[in-house]
Amino acid sequence: MKHDLPTDECQETAALYALGALSQHEARAFEIHLRQGCEVCQRELNEFTGVVDALSTSSAEVTPPGYLRDLLNSRIEKEATFPLTASPLAAQVVQFPERAQPTAPVVAHRSTFTGWLPWAAAALLLIAFAYTLINWQKDHRQLQAVSSQNQETQQQLAHMREQLAYGDARTRELEQINAVLSAPQRSVINMSGLEAAPSASGNVYWDHQKNRWVVIANLPPAPAGKVYQLWMVTPEAKISAGLIEQDARGHGFVVVDLPLNVSQILAAAITLEPQGGSPQPTMPIYAIGKVAV
Known about the structure:
Blueprint: H1 8-19, H2 24-35, H3 39-57, H4 67-80, H5 88-92, H6 104-181, E1 186-193, E2 201-207, E3 212-218, E4 226-233, E5 238-246, E6 251-257, E7 267-274, E8 285-290
């Protein structure tokens, strides 16, 4: 069965295969699994094989102890002093220097054992490294999963906060609108979009007793450096009633206290103006509504 993601089992098998620590049956089964095209296990094996090669090439050569050279020179000198007719038995009883206690076979055996020490140390180091790497990869995957879950949770919380803020804003708007609709002297100006923004719309709730407008408007998001401005249209002039702030959805809301010196208002209009507003309209009208007679 091919693996989609690295597992602890496949990492351990790849590490032991690279070390040559699998049984013949296990190694053959792993090779068959690789030939079946498991890219995950092949990638893990390549990583561990690279580590084994790096450790094997970095092992230093073992230098024989210095006293072995002295022992060899002493023996050569001793043998040179014997006549050619000396018996092999006599040559065998020649005493070596005090440090030359081990016999030649023992010295050879000691050198062989010493030569295996770096390989044994390398194997132990590789096993420890493989174990550490497997645990690190496992912990890393767990941390990634936890991080992904935390990120998703944060996004959900941010969305919930946005929804709550939007709901609170709409609640405050409805409270203002209901207050106007409950007033004894009231009227509503319905605004609709013109050529500049056909989909634009809005309503002006006019409390005549308090001389106040409660305005809601749905407009395209204002471009950078621009702002929507509300106007009171009279027979003599167009008077600014303030700026309309929008939320991320393009919804605008504003409460306006009308000047006392404005006697006859014919319409309410909205234009797009430079940031900060203009003393007189400079852009096409985006939405307009006439006052009912």
